[in-house]
Amino acid sequence: MENIKVALTGNPNVGKTAIFNGLTGMRQHVGNWPGVTVEKKEGTYIHKGINFLVTDLPGIYSLSAVSIDERIARNFLTEENPDVVVAIIDGMNLERNLYLVSELMDLGVNLIIAVNFMDEVEKNDMKIDIQKLSEVFGVPVVGTVAIKGHGIQKLKDEIFKASQSKSVSFIRYSDELEQYIKQIEEISRLFNIKSPFRTRFLALKLIEEDPEIFEQMRLSVNNARQFSRLLNEILSDIKQKHDDPSVFVGDEKFKFIKRTLKNIVEGSGTKSESLTNKMDNIFTHRIWGLPILFGIMYTVFQLTFTLGGIFADWLDSGMGFLSDSVLSSVQNEILASFLANGVIGGVGSVLVFVPNIFILFLLIAVLENVGYMARAAFVMDKVMNAIGLSGKSFIPMILGFGCNVPAIMATRTIEKEDDRIITAVLNPLIPCSARIPIFLAFAGTFFPKHQGLIVFSMYIIAIALIVILAKILKTTLFKGTPAPFVMELPPYRVPSFSQVNSEAWKRTSLFVKKAGTIIFAAVIAIWLLASLPTGVEYASKNSYIGLIGKAIAPIFKPNGFGNWQSSVALIFGFMAKEVVVGTLGALAGGIENLGSFLSNLFTPISAYSFMLFSLLYVPCVASLGILLKEVGMKWTVLSVVLLISLAYFVSMAFYLIGSLFI
């Protein structure tokens, strides 16, 4: 079967993911691009007997290769040579989106344009002449409403046709710019330049003084000095007339786009802009924006426990029944203990919270799809600036609610090195999804009427400590001004249920896989240590795990949990935070015993102290590994010392002060 490579590209927030899902369905694979931490999504579909391999490129605004995302997209388009490139544009923002289309045409790819959100265009009393747009740009154009699946079949047909013809079109700019392009193309031919780029694209990027292209030319041209002299003569002429050559090229592109749209678009789309502006007056208000953000996040956590608790109780009962069934039906005593106390008790103690985690991810996906998370970053920009960081530092913080590992990786998008290091070092303080089972187990046992408030307080404490520590680091070790924060705020949209559900399941499945691997391995080790030496009572203080715990327990006595069981749980939790509950569940002899087990070990005040320690100490081995890779040994050691010290002294202070009032 013939394979055709298709690349999807476009600005952020144009519905690329929805079109990718519409084309590929369930035939998808998510990984990372080689050498970087940017997510790479690939998928396949079969159409008319041909296998189409689809790659979803990162959302970008141009092919200037200033950011990692732009570099990935440009390198893929030139090095992988996809047979068809689909440029997805927002029908409500044609002028801005068509700038990237012009760059793709300069690059000389086999292009199709997909105009998405055509339903919003219609609602705003606008009309886009798809046929005329196709004629002007000389490429196929398809109107789509991706979240509803409208236009996807037509897009597949056009991709098939384009894969067979492989035609290339280009935009003709003003005579002046065309003359400069021609001159540089002649110089390129004169020096026999070897480049993966089409000479027209190369000429335009040299006019824009693209640093990466300049470096490539310096290394590939035999007589680099002579080439630079001739090129600088052309650039000097442009600068005399237009000051900045890159602005000159940009202006030429937008002049062409504006001329084109006059004859293609009817209506202004002010209805959508008006609604977005009205909503932004509320959600990004300079005074009320931050309280609204905290109110929304509190509601998210409250719903997570209220709704998730119903399903968690069912799972809890199911795990208890399964454990009892194993104990009564398996004749071999050792095997029965391993399955009931180790596997079901350990892994089951974590899996019982999957409904809560799914609902949390579902609600966050809704906020992302509605367009609110971008506003959250915008609102937090003021807070981040107050502590000396850019609003860009808030993006990895948001990612940290899922997992600290990709969140630390995401700090690469922060241009200023000092801001990047501070954000990476403090990111492990963000409560990732792995800590949720700990919070839920303890809040459910000791604070059943106020679970949402108790867990929400963990997040507030973490954020408050990050603000304080960032301010301290910024005024001591890292002095300087933060980089400016520029972020596009997408229009508010009704979320797609299928897309939101898909994102939530994807994130939850990663959590479940972790439970089936790391946590499973940990509970086996815990069960063995709790069962040996032969003849001791399971999980008693005389077992190996009891002896280890007793040696460490005195350290945590000032914190209120000087029992050996919690000490062992914290040690094993260093592998992965979910293992804390898995350890306690295994030692309790099953999930059904966990509540009473915890009640015998903790009081409400020591339970909250334990939650604080679990919140603040080193998240997991994986996060330390990626931190070491991103910021080096010096800052990783600082982070570890800082986190452990913070966990110990904050937890101890809370317990000692709290005990005075109880």
UniProtKB/TrEMBL annotation:
Membrane association type: Multi-pass membrane protein
Recorded GO MF terms: ferrous iron transmembrane transporter activity; GTP binding; metal ion binding
Family to which this protein belongs: Belongs to the TRAFAC class TrmE-Era-EngA-EngB-Septin-like GTPase superfamily. FeoB GTPase (TC 9.A.8) family.
Predominant place of localization: membrane
Binding site for GTP 2: G35, V36, T37, V38, E39
Domain FeoB-type G: residue ranges: 3-165
Presence of the UniProt keyword Coiled coil in the record: no
Record carries keyword Signal: no
Pfam families for this protein: FeoB_C, FeoB_Cyto, FeoB_N, Gate
Spans through the membrane: 288-314, 334-367, 387-409, 421-447, 453-473, 515-532, 568-588, 608-628, 635-657
Binding site for GTP 4: N116, F117, M118, D119
GO cellular component: plasma membrane
UniProt protein name: Ferrous iron transport protein B
Keywords carried by this UniProt record: Cell inner membrane, Cell membrane, GTP-binding, Ion transport, Iron, Iron transport, Magnesium, Membrane, Metal-binding, Nucleotide-binding, Transmembrane, Transmembrane helix, Transport
Binding-site residues, Mg(2+) 2: N21, T24, G25
Source organism per UniProt: Kosmotoga olearia (strain ATCC BAA-1733 / DSM 21960 / TBF 19.5.1)
Compartments, record wording: Cell inner membrane
